[in-house]
Every structure is written in structure tokens, then in C-alpha cells.
Amino acid sequence: MLKNYFSFSKNNTIKTLIAGLGNPILSDDGVGWVIAQKIGSILSNSYSSIAVECFDLAGLALMEQMVGFERVIIIDAIYTGRSAQGAISTFRLDSLADLTRGHSASAHDLTLKKALALGRSLNTKLPEDKNIWIVAVEAQKVYEFGETLTPAIKAAVPQAIQEVFNLLGSKLFNIDNEPL
Length: 180
Known about the structure:
Helices cover 27% and strands 23% of the residues. By secondary structure, it is an alpha/beta fold. The chain has a six-stranded mixed β-sheet with strand order 1-3-2-4-6-5, with helices on one face. The chain has a two-stranded antiparallel ribbon with strand order 7-8. It is globular, with a radius of gyration of 16 Å.
């Protein structure tokens, strides 16, 4: 499911996709959507090169949405068990291990890395791995039904927004949740 909140292009020059990933009815798993929606509100109609969208599927579905973009910033919840709830991690997709190695996987549950490799093998115009960033919020409650974020995850939203703007090379947002 794709929810397009903001596309800022007046002349077909969109080069960056900010993708909020998750499920907004599974409590903290919806943090990617919350962050993407807030970024879209901050950007409003100011930037013609950025699209902000929300997705509930990764793998092949997300790869298809990345076609034609030069850079992608994915915002999602992550559970590593190594960081405090609400901790922000930023890394490139190419630094992420492919967790399906050694396991069989069907076409409907490819990892994003495998989906991108498949797309590239078909000469699809996709961003290079070095241009795909992930801003992840450490969360535990990603399988519990609820439409609100837990306090620790909600408190992390401004910092995650700032991290996205840092990746964009912009200081348009400050940590106090106020547009500059």
C-alpha cells in the first residue's frame, strides 16, 4: 500500500524519495509514517526535488517505488536489542547484512537488497546502494496493535527528522521540533 503525502515537483525533477516504512496500526512500527508525514509538512511546497511517501511493504514493492530516483532515505522502526528504545541509527543500505543468506526465499518476500539486485539485473533505473540511507528508530512494540507511538519512540521523532534533514544536507529543522 502506498500513501503519497507529498510530491514536490513542478517540472518532473524529483530526485530524492523519503520513504516512511511501517504499519501505522502496529504501535511503534508506524514511526516511519509519523516521521515522513512531519517531514512532508515541514517541506510543504518548498522543494521540487523531493518526494515524501509512506509504504507498508518493503522488498519488491518498495523497489518498484524507488525506480527513477537518485537517492532514497528510508525511515523505519528497527529492533536490534542493542540500543535503548528511541535510539536513532543511520546507515547506508549497503552496510546492512542480507539476513536471508542461507535461507530459501520466495519472490514475494525478497529482502530489499535482493529486490534491488533483481531490478538492476533487468536494467531498471534504481539508485545506487551508496545513495540509499536508512534512518532507523530502535523500537520493541512493532507487533502490538495500537495507533499511537510509545513515549520513548514519540520522543525520538524530532531527532529522527533532524537526521533526515542532515542527510539532505539541510538544517531546515531544529531538534526542538520547530521549522527554521
